[in-house]
Specification:
Blueprint lengths: L5 H32 L3 E5 L8 E4 L5 E4 L6 H9 L6 E7 L4 H4 L2 H7 L1 E7 L7 H12 L3 E4 L5 E5 L2 E7 L15 E6 L2 E5 L5 H11 L7 E3 L11 H7 L3 E4 L12 H10 L3 E3 H4 L2 E5 L4 E3 L2
Parallel strand pairs: 3-4, 4-5, 5-6, 10-11, 11-12, 12-13
Antiparallel strand pairs: 1-2, 1-14, 2-3, 7-8, 8-9, 9-10, 14-15
Helix pairs in contact: 4-5, 6-7
């Protein structure tokens, strides 16, 4: 004869019911969250210390990570920006192969499924770059070399347009080779400058002029004295600037002269080492800072 414990069965049913209820609540809240986010572009400048990392979620959910900071801190920050069940990122953009921009990318590729990586085409002999190259090859990640005029469609009307480099950067200084891109959604935009020096900014000011106009400017090279030329800043004329840097970093970033320039231009600025993650949302008509 088959025997069973009625009390044990009741307990199991109670646990199954609670689990089912929890799952139902989770999916309901996910639906509410997804509905609230629909049609919005979210751009998060992540607090990764002395480095750069920008997480972008397009209006239809496609995701781009621009740079990965200097170390594993990127995993903590992505955990803040992405749902716990999301383990994939559509595109990773490596603006240039300096440690403070790519040091965390091997950890990203080892913990998230990445479809495509976009880079500037400059090959570096550093240990960080070689590790990243090996993982990209091992995981068969699709590689694309960025060139001026290229557009990365994020869906829902949002896209990333490459402004620089406009030539083969082999043998160039890493900062000079840095990718500069404009993220556009409707009437709004974000200008992402990597570590581009003033020479590149002045060049873009000359060839792009008023097309550089933007709502949010990511200040180049963590606000160093070689960032944010006056002509470039004048054409970009952002509503707000974001400086990604580490607290009390040894480089003295951001440089006081650069901060004084923003004040002269009447441009407010936010700093990750003071504010933590800095997050903006756009509905295609206007940009709002939400964190």
């Amino acid at each position: 004869m088959y025997n069973f414990d009625v009390n044990s069965l009741k307990k199991n049913i109670e646990w199954y019911s609670l689990a089912l209820l929890f799952a139902s609540v989770l999916f309901i809240w996910y639906g509410v969250f997804a509905e609230n986010q629909a049609g919005k572009l979210t751009v998060s400048f992540l607090d990764v210390g002395q480095g750069d990392a920008i997480f972008i979620e397009g209006p239809n959910g496609n995701q781009v990570l621009v740079d990965g900071g200097p170390n594993k801190a990127i995993l903590r920050e992505l955990g803040h920006s992405m749902p716990f069940y999301d383990h994939s990122i559509d595109v990773v953009m490596e603006t240039h192969p300096d440690l403070d921009h790519i040091g965390g990318l091997p950890d990203v590729l080892n913990n998230y499924k990445v479809e495509t990586i976009i880079e500037d085409g400059l090959r570096s002999e550093t240990a960080a770059e070689k590790e990243l190259e090996n993982i990209v090859a091992e995981k068969k990640v699709n590689e694309i070399i960025a060139v001026r005029g290229m557009k990365i469609d994020l869906g829902g009307g949002a896209f990333l347009e490459i402004l620089s480099p406009d030539r083969d950067v082999s043998g160039s200084d890493t900062n000079t080779a840095s990718i500069v891109a404009k993220l556009v959604y409707g009437k709004t935009s974000f200008l992402l400058t990597g570590d581009a020096p003033t020479a590149i900014e002045n060049y873009l000011a000359k060839i792009d002029g008023k097309n550089l106009k933007t709502d949010v400017l990511k200040v180049a090279h963590h606000g160093s004295k070689n960032s944010a030329s006056e002509s470039f800043l004048g054409f970009a004329s952002p509503e707000v600037a974001v400086i990604s840097a580490g607290l009390n970093n040894r480089y003295g970033h951001p440089n006081q002269e650069i901060l004084d320039m923003f004040n002269r231009f009447g441009i407010p600025f936010a700093e990750t080492f003071k504010d933590g993650d800095i997050v903006f949302e756009s509905d295609g008509e206007r940009v709002e800072r939400v964190k």
